[in-house]
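cron nightly-structures :: item 1 of 1
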Amino acid sequence: MAKKSPRLRLNSKSPSARIKDLGPSI
């Protein structure tokens, strides 16, 4: 997953940002 979305790893710090990435990801 990290390889597919390097941004997710960065957002891992912020739970709020993580949900944002998950939205478009799905």
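cron nightly-structures :: done
The mean pLDDT is 60.
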